[in-house]
Structure formats: C-alpha cells, structure tokens
Amino acid sequence: MEDHITSLFKCIPKLKTGNRFIVGIDGLSRSGKTTLVEKFSRNLTGEHIEVCIFHIDDYIVERSKRYDTGSEEWFEYYHLQWDTEWLKRNLFKKLKETSQLKLPIYDNESDTHRLQNIIIPETCVNVIEGVFLQREEWRGLYDYIVYLDCPRNKRLLRESELTQRNMEKMRNRYWKAEDYYLQTVLPTKQAHLVLNN
Prior knowledge:
By secondary structure, the protein is of the alpha/beta class. It has one domain (2-12, 20-196): 3-Layer(aba) Sandwich (Rossmann fold), CATH 3.40.50. The protein has 8 helices and 7 strands, in the order αβαβααββββααααβ. The strands form 2 sheets. A 5-stranded parallel beta sheet has the order 2-5-1-6-7. Strands 3-4 form a two-stranded antiparallel sheet. A hairpin with a 4-residue loop joins strand 3 and strand 4. The longest helix has 18 residues, at 167-184.
C-alpha cells in the first residue's frame, strides 16, 4: 500500500494559491478504495496540503428509485443508483467553482437524505472515491484518475458474511453491472494510473 501512496503523490502537482486538483479513485466494490483514500489523505495533510474527500456512495438515491423499478437488477445498480446528471451539475462541475457545497447525504438506515454543508478550501486536492467513476457522464471531469484493480475472488472475501450468502443478488445485480462497466468503459485503459491491490 505504501508503494501505491508514493505513486499517487507523484500525480499531484505543486498547487498555486487558488488552484484545486481533482483526483478520482475508481475501482469495483471491495477493491480497497476507502483504505487507499484514508492513507492518501493522511499523507497529504502531513505535507500541509488541504484535502476534501467525497465518497460517491454517500449520494445514492432512495431505495424506491433503484429497486423493483421493472428494469433488470444490474441496470438498476449501474444506471439508477445515482442521479448521475444531478451529481455532474451539483458536485463534479462545482468543485473548482465554489467554496461551499450543499449536498444530500444518504442515510441507509432511514432511507432518507440530510443536507450536508461542505466548505472547500481555496487551494486543495479534491478526492472523489467510488465505483464506476469513469462512466460516460463523469469522464473528463477529473484532473487525474486512478483505477484500483483487484480480482473478484479476493474482493468477495472482503464482503460481509450476509452479502457472501446472497450470491444470487451478487450475480444478478452487482457482478453483471461490474462486467458491463469493464466491457463498455474499459476503466483500466482510460485511467491515468492503474494500481493492483
């Protein structure tokens, strides 16, 4: 993991006052994105570089909009889990334009959102972490994109016992969506940097 942090640091330019740099940390479920981002953030802070972190799963829509919609399960996960156009306008495109964001953070327990007020420093690194970040709607909105690659069998072992027991859902919802992403977007070819985890 330390080698990955070193590789990531090399992609960050020396920021001039008033500049912001957007890094996307892409990868499929349980590939190690969150752990990488936490260590990367600590290292940036240690170098006195301000950082804002955005987890794309914080911005999913309510269950009624992504389950039992009449579409196939993989389609619901890939195309309906997030309001991609709203996020494009209200998150991605504003990261360099505004000093303050109001974003609806999803609460899984209550299946509701609460508004979060986020202050973005004038000079900072914005890190967006999540799955399917290089999808067509969001491609081109990063200064640098990292893809964390990890085999499915290893990722599955990192899932909870409950998730591992529900293999039908894994196959029909998650794995089919992942395969669609890998085959149509080619994230390992589009990313600036691919890290094997």
